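Sample entry (542 residues):
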Amino acid sequence: MTTPEVRPAAISARGWGWRHAGRSRPAVSGLDLEISPGERVLLLGPSGAGKSTLLHALAGVLGDSGAPGAGDDADADETGALLIDGAAPRAQRGRAGLMQQDPETQVVLSRLGDDVAFGAENLAVAPAEIWRRVAEALDDVGLAGLPLEHPTSALSGGQKQRLALAGILAMRPGLLLLDEPTANLDPAGVLEVRDAVGRCLDKTGATLVVVEHRVAVWKDLVDRIVVLQPGSATESAVLLDGPPDRVLEQARDMLIAAGVWVPGHVPATRARAAGGADGQGAPGQGTGDTPADPAAGGLLLAAEKLSVSRERPRRAGLLKGFGRIPPAPVQAGITAQVRAGEALTVTGPNGSGKSTFALTLAGLLPPAAGTVSAATELSRGAGIDPYTWKAQQLIARIGTVFQEPEHQFVTGRVLDELMFGPRQLGRGEERVDELLERLRLRDLVDANPYTLSGGEKRRLSVATVLAAHPQVLVLDEPTFGQDANTWAELASFLSELLDAGTAVVSVTHDAEFSQVLGGRELRLGAPQPELPGRMAPGVAAP
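Predicted structure, serialized as tokens:
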């Protein structure tokens, strides 16, 4: 039974295309597509095929300077027609609801109920009706047990994505657009979000278009799979279109070649030279345990009894003599070592402090307690504490890839972004050409980084750090948004760097990626903010 306030939307694309400003090639070209009211469609394709571009267009935000990652698209070029119920998406405010891949960037207000109400308020829904919708939406996504005053900052990643979904449902859209909504979530969070979406669709009957690289999560929830290919003036944007089982059975080899994550297939990667995991096994086979690499080099970084937090110390009173109250840690008692040529994988549930630990280890956050110490081989006279290093000292020693790629872009051109680090260090740019080729960025050198797809932004953020030749790489979710082909290339490239002596620290939920790199795992437990002193310590184990 559908919700009476929801009117499922119809989508029609006729020769539609979009070229971002500053780009020579279109992100999407010649798209012909019809989606009936209430249909559920999984949109697949290699990174850069225009999947996110299409979703932003359907949401009516493509070309707006305030659109997520859009930059200034005033000189963009649109061709053909893209319609929702026969009208342009931009003219239908609230008809479509867009949920994106990063849970953190979608939280608007500090209290649960206010955040869900925000969209409906902007649509001028009557106050009494808003709060009826808020209660119903929270129940639909499984968050009704939390009070409306519950702080949004205390939610896990999976809960934040369900909160974003509740805010969309409160607007009563006829079209639900999901742009890799589980890319940054732990396995439990993935199931939470997928199941919540399923319940909501069963209740509302809304039309669904979801973009995900990994097919298995959504295959049983959708009616149809549409595979896009990168924009071309001579070819149709739609490579394949049909029922999920038929598309996956009849075109398995074609999908694998296009970089789609087909269930049961793991792409082949370069094998580690010594002691690492063998990524060249048969598709679908695991690589076994990942013991410490016996060929690992000397110690570069060490965390001892480390507590991590993003809060700053607070004054204990108005008088100077009262001192300062240390911040409440999200994790405490962490002990870990980073060695040359060895991988350290940081795992754990969303909200367990993995990113905070990574930023602290990389010298970008001060320890809440305990120490991070750099060995002489890494510090090279800069001092033992990485947090005290100057910017130029840091980027030459420890390169950090943030969870949100946009947070590290500093120029308006891909090539300038790649050259920025080497130029700051007064070094040559010999690695830039290799990075452009290996990470499939060659055709994007003149593009604005903010107009790239999610997967392209991630590859660029990794490339900008690699260009500076740091001894330690700290990567936060390095594989999110990647198709299978670019995933394999990135994993192979990192395994080469490991064999060359670079240390790689990865925060990831990607088990296959961890197996390729080998090394040690540091698993952080769930945070317990009410008892910060009693948290189970994280210890790197073979």
